[in-house]
Amino acid sequence: MEQLNAYIDGELDSSLCKQLESHLETCTDCQVVLNTLNKTIELCRKDGRETTLPPDARQRLLASLGLDDDAQQEG
């Protein structure tokens, strides 16, 4: 997941980028995750408003992404 975020943000090393793109060619699960992340980013940018998720929704989202809420709030 961290690599997908870095990939979307254009922050992934070129060799890892190639590896990820090769993986994405055959992994439909990762294709779905990538497409969903891209669509979410697109919708947020279109709206232009800062949005806060309800705490329970935030916890579910971070858990499904395998991310730690404390680390996200500090960064």
Rg, please? 14 Å
Query: What proportion of the residues form beta strands (DSSP E)?
Result: under 5%
> What does the average pLDDT come to?
81
Which percent bin holds the helix content? over 70%
**Biggest sheet architecture:** none
- How many structural domains does the protein architecture include? 1
**Class inferred from helices and paired strands:** mainly alpha
Written account of the structure:
This protein has helices at 2-8, 14-26, 28-47, 55-65, 69-74. With 75 residues, it is mainly α. The protein has one domain (2-74). It starts with a helix and ends with a helix.
In short:
This protein is mainly α and 75 residues long. The chain has 5 helices and no strands.
Descriptors:
single chain, 75 residues, mainly alpha, 76% helix, globular
Secondary-structure blueprint:
Blueprint: H1 2-8, H2 14-26, H3 28-47, H4 55-65, H5 69-74
